[in-house]
Design brief:
By secondary structure, the chain is mainly alpha-helical. The protein has a two-stranded antiparallel sheet.
Length: 64
């Protein structure tokens, strides 16, 4: 699954640590998602979309 998390994080001038703290996850989780090594749970994806005030599809794109 491809994502634009790093782009949205940069647009809000947040560090990985700051974003992690605001979402209630670890910095390592943010790193893993940004590097596309980890797909977040549906709940976390909704939380991220809500935080950035965008649709889930704006952040995450499914690829087969």
């Amino acid at each position: 699954m491809r994502n634009r998390l790093r782009v949205y994080r940069s647009m809000t001038n947040l560090t990985q640590k700051e974003l992690a703290e605001r979402l209630g996850i670890t910095r390592q989780t943010v790193i893993a998602i940004e590097k596309e090594r980890y797909a977040p749970s549906l709940e976390l994806a909704f939380k991220m979309a809500s935080f950035f005030r965008v649709r889930i599809e704006d952040i995450f794109q499914y690829e087969e």
